[in-house]
Amino acid sequence: MTAIRINPYPIPDLLSALAQSQQQQQTDLLQLATGRKINQPSDDPAGAAQLVQNLDQQSQADSFQRSMSSVNGQLSTADSTLNSVTTALQRAISLGTEGANGTLSDSDRASVATEVQGIQAQLISLANTAYQGSYVFSGTAQVQPFVADSSQPSGVRYDGNTGVNQVAIGNGYSLAVNVPGSQIFAAPGSDVFQSINDLITALQTNSNIGGAVNEVDTAYNYVTQQRVFYGNGMNQITDQQNNLNTETVNLSSQENTIAGADLSTVISNLVNSQTARQATLQAIGQTTQLNLFNFLPPA
Amino acid sequence: MSGLLGTMSIALSALGTEQGALEVTSNNVANLNTAGYSRQQPVIEESDPVVLGSLTLGTGVTLAKVQSVRDPILQLRIQEETQQQGSLNASVTSMQQAQVLFNSSSGGDIGSQISNFFSSLSQLSTDPTNVSLRQGVLTAAANLAGSFNTTANTLTEQRSSVDLEVSQAVQQVNTLTGQIAQINGQISDLQNIGQDASAFVDQRDVLIGQLSNLIDVSQIQSDHTLTLTTSNGTALVAGQQAFTLTTQPDSSGVQHIYAQGQDITSQLTSGELGGLIQVRDQKIPGILTSLDTLAAGLSNALNTANQAGFDLNGNPGGDLFVAPPASGQGAASSMAVAITDPTLIAASSDGTPGSNGNVAVLSAVHDQPAIAGQTPTDYYANLVFGVGSDVSNGTAELASTQLTLQQLQDQRGSISGVSLDEEASNLIQYQNAYQAAARVVDTVSQMFTTLVNMGAS
């Protein structure tokens, strides 16, 4: 009679089951410790590749946010400088109006002219504003943009250039971040320095003061309009910051989906495997005990 | 009289046979924990009958032979599976070390450094004349080059380590083939005189199993000679002769395996040697080549972009990174920043110092499909996928092979394993038969006495 034989050594199988469950436990513990389910590329190759992309996108979003902070500082500095410029121009207009008064004495008019000269010096200084070591209104040149030069009709020489820098604040989205000083302060027909210089001359020679005041007024309106560029820029930045905040949240949540460990599942797996391990250990303990030799009658 | 003597001798034959059978049982029990042992069965046969007058009488029992129970086909399958396991195990273990280099959680991997570099460029674009921002770009570039260097150099070290394992495995193979050849001699000595050599055959199976773990093995059994070759025909053992393998380094310093003067390195497909050679000669070099492609591609693209602009001094930009080798080989381990002076970064597009126009050109490299038709980050992500899936697929195959091997071992156990229950019940059987035969001897002995005392007064 051929009986069906079974493998008389179940121990190796049980031990290998133990080893497998131990390995799974180690994997689970690592996930618990790191909070991530991808601790090496082989844990989820496709996920690991997606994670590379996701982390790069997060880095880009962070970069854009930092750029925007920096650019916002530049724009806001330029804008508040131009605010001071318009205030100074308003003062010049009221001085000019005062000086146009026919009842003023020559020496009084001369005093007004001197005050306007003071404003001229202030305007030059404002036009040479620097932000973190770089001139705001020099275009892309690195020299002081406005220099007092009596040989020039406006009394001032522009040594900067007309370069405009663009800074990327999003994918495929760049913002112009500066306006050349020549465009703001020396635009033909609305030249700030020309108009101030003309006003000084007019006050000193008591001729056509009214015309000079109109020039300054034109320049004042022009500069006010130029400020719109900076206001728009800062608004665009605010909008884009909000967009990027949302995108950052999305990317972060995507990262968690790709690589974050599902802690509740991991913990319940660990509990289950601990139970299974105990059962296996008991089984190993039991199976080795009995065989027929135990039941042979004593000699 | 011959009747009683005949009966006596029949009983005696039983005693001898049952005692012999008991010895077989005892041997099985003694070898319960011997690796590779195949249980033995006594083959008990009826002795040839004799014709006495009109009667045909049996003449008892003989222990014809002791037979070991094994399935040679199963053994072959186990050895095939062992080769597969050896190969996968070597491959997975080595590649698991390699994939550590591509883990993103440390922040020091190539992918993170690529992101950091482009981030530093983005900062520079907001204030191109700022020297500390420029220095930031150079630092990020150095870190990027450093991550390539470290990754490539570590992989090269791992490859050397695998090379060492190859040498060691070859030595082990030689030891084993020597031992197998010797046992072949012992087996054929016994088989030539018609004896059962099962103890040595069991030992040889264990040795062949160990050999299969190391190298691919094919067996050819002819008469009483066993020949072992690699799957591709190179002789390892022929009867009592072992053919040793030798190793010699090739021009790049890597060990090649020679058998009788022929280079068989690329022909070893299985066993630990097969796996190690695949890792050493294909897998790791493959990753290194990809790294070289990425390093060279990035260096060249960034250099071209830098050359399109002007530095802080108004001069046309030069190379940002040291030009990679023309063949591309070794680009990753030798990647380095070419400048130390931060003013040489060509941020300007028109020569004016405050222009950031060329930073956009440098930054655009991030999105250029310049590395084998992919952007740098895409290329790196694919590399990570490749390395990861190699290990994950290998691990799955290894688990499956181990399961199959276990099932085959279980099967072998069910055929050849010693069962204590079975041996105990055999013990009882043989003992009972022995006791019964002894009783017969006793009885016949009494009958002799009766006979002899017949007619005595």
Molecular structure report:
By secondary structure, chain A is mainly alpha-helical. Chain A has a domain of 202 residues: f41 fragment of flagellin, N-terminal domain (Up-down Bundle), CATH 1.20.1330.10. Chain A contains 7 helices and 6 strands; from the N terminus they run αααββββββαααα. A two-stranded antiparallel ribbon of chain A has the order 1-2. Chain A has a two-stranded antiparallel sheet with strand order 3-4. The longest helix of chain A has 56 residues. Chain B is α+β, with helices and mostly antiparallel strands and 457 residues long. Chain B folds into 2 domains: 102 residues; 329 residues, no CATH class. Helix content of chain B is 60%, strand content 11%. Chain B contains 10 helices and 11 strands. The two termini of chain B are 21 Å apart. In chain B, 42% of the residues are buried. Classes of the chains: A mainly alpha (299), B alpha+beta (457). The interface between A and B is large, with 58 and 65 residues.
Overall, the morphology of chain A is rod-shaped
Q: What fraction strand of chain A?
A: 5-15%
The average pLDDT of chain B is 93
Q: What is the C-alpha radius of gyration of chain A, as a whole number of Å?
A: 40 Å
Give the low-confidence spans of chain A: none
> What distance separates the N and C termini of chain B?
21 Å
| Sheet with most strands: strand arrangement of chain B | 5-6-7-8
Number of DSSP strand runs of chain A: 6
Strand adjacency order, main sheet of chain A? 1-2
The domain tally of chain B reads 2
End-to-end separation of chain A: 29 Å
Written as H for each helix and E for each strand, in order along the chain, the element string of chain B is HEEEEHHHHEEEEEEEHHHHH
CATH-level-4 superfamily name of one domain in chain A:
f41 fragment of flagellin, N-terminal domain
